Amino acid sequence: MYNSACSAAAGGCSEPERHDRDGLITHETAVAPVEHDYSGFDIVKATQYGAIARVKELIEAGWDVNQPDSETVTLLHWAAINNRKDIIKYFLDKGAIVDAVGGELNATPLHWATRQGHLGAVVLLLAAGADPSIRDAEGCSCIHLAAQFGHTALVAYFIARGVNPDLQDRGGMTALMWAAWKISALDPVRLLLTLGANPSLADHTHGNTALHWAILARNATAVSTLVLKGKANMEVPNLRGDTPLTMLQPHVGSIWIGSKVSDRIRELTQQSQRRNPFVRMTLDKRFRWWTMIATPFLVFYLAGLIFCADTLIIIKVFLIGCLYGVAQTVGQHLFDENLMALLPLSVYMATKLWFYVTWLTYIAPTVSFLASLAFLTCSAGLWVCFLKSWRGNPGVIQPTQEQRFRTIIELSERGATGFEPAAFCSACLVRRPVRSKHCSVCDRCVARFDHHCPWVGNCIGAKNHKYFMGFLWMLLVMCAWMLYGGANFYVQTCDFNMDGGLWSALVAIGSCNPWVGWVMGNALLHMSWVTVLTICQSYQVVCLGMTTNERLNRGRYRHFQAKGGKSPFNRGPLRNLFDFLECSCCGLVQPQRTDWMQFFEFDKHVEHEPLLRPDNFHSNYYPNDRPPPPPSTGSRRRRRPPNPERELAALMKSQAISAMLKSGSKMKLS
Ligand SMILES: [Zn+2]
Ligand SMILES: [Zn+2]
């Protein structure tokens, strides 16, 4: 039965019901009373509707705050499920039992608040000593409920307050498993992995890991997050002997699992097959990395050799075509997406190496010693700037786990319900300094982020931007120097002049020394894009006082909107330049030195607004002269929490699955 249900889920006939990020719990809404007079309300209704004056009146008149109703539900449960924070505080002051168990599911007020995603109520209850590890009748503690319903902020807050992210419910399910099974959004799976959840744990009933559950649910986001970010083991069998690898193999190439996960599956499949040594060598990561680095060096050299060959032009064209074909074939078989990110960097390195060789071999004897010295000096500067841009820290915001927890607690307890993206990076779980951005290529937040540059294989940010600018200027000069040296070489050693036009000049170059011409062509090519980039970068830094990211996305930033799209950091061209270079010109100017890693100043006006979504803060958003929002009037008849056993059984019952099992067909996912 289980097997059939598993194959059905994995085969795509039917999907288990899944919740989105906000949690789709049924809201049994009551009709809001029209009148403002709550004097006729009983204590339960007054609590549900947030009528604190009536609640106080009844309690002062002698109502026992811990008096449960006929279904053992206490007043604190009602206050919690409706997020009536002032009433929760009042009940707690009056001695309400914080961990009172009630309702059909034997749940605590903390369970009720958690299911609804009421962070404000959860903060108050935890502060009053509520125990988040208590399990309800379904065997779930609060972190499991928060994960099931996709309440990411609550999952983060529970872990920050000391709940073990790997806490297992009665069936051995962890929050990560629940999120992988139920939630199709990126979080809370990504958040749980960032906060240290272990993707290798298996539940007691089926022996499934979180990745098994994600595959059963056909949850593409969770599968890719677990495989790529969580590095989940794909070769762990469950109690049926199925590994994530064997479950995913039939779907390699399908759109729903994505190309990166498909690549990973192919890699593992081929490794397990242990073919001949040559195939194994091509799968070796180091071999592939070195092939990626070496290919542009070789292609540059071989293309130059072909140009220099003493043969017909048509044969040269044919050979160049063959070289292109070989490079393409090597690329298709040995380079994956990660390696392709290295390509611009290795092209740059190869070009530079052959510049040096050409200068020293051909050009140096034809130019003065000073010209060669200037070339080498410029090259040394280029190396310094390149290394600082390539290997230097661009200003990565890298918090410790304790700092993450502190940030989550601080933001949660400030009185909000979800994290404001402008102030909080949900991938790194850090407060975002102003001008920082999360680099999607490197998966990290970088202070005063400019852009991710493939030519230096690094982000450009607060700490390496000026070196990147130095790199561009030096590269420009070096390319120009190379063109000057090459032209000088041809004038000195070949019978070269431009009198016969461009074509005759090219023929003269081809017959005299094609290699130098090939190198000059490359210098010209690089010079063109470097010129455009240098002009853009210099204009942005000096004239606009903004980064590339800000120029492209200024509409998203409130501090730019407030200035009509202009940069609030623009202090005029000269000051911008000195600030950027952090140069005081021997004390003549006073540059503004800003620590962009710690610059949260603009957050102040962000912080005055709710950091978390206001929909769960009805009491704050409804003035006293308006009727309160419809309350939740009960969870006793509320839908039971998701249960994998039950859902797998339900899947089996569906006619579509039965038909598929009868025919024995396997649906192809695409
Ligand atoms: Zn980030
Ligand atoms: Zn980056």
From TrEMBL:
It comes from the Eukaryota. Residues 1-14 have a biased composition (Low complexity). One of its GO terms (cellular component) is membrane. The DHHC domain is required for palmitoyltransferase activity. Signal peptide: none annotated. The keyword Lyase does not apply. The chain crosses the membrane at residues 289-307, 313-331, 363-386, 471-491, 503-525. Residues 420-553 form the Palmitoyltransferase DHHC domain. Its main location: membrane. It catalyses: L-cysteinyl-[protein] + hexadecanoyl-CoA = S-hexadecanoyl-L-cysteinyl-[protein] + CoA. Pfam families: Ank, Ank_2, Ank_4, DHHC. Gene3D superfamilies: Ankyrin repeat-containing domain. This is Palmitoyltransferase.
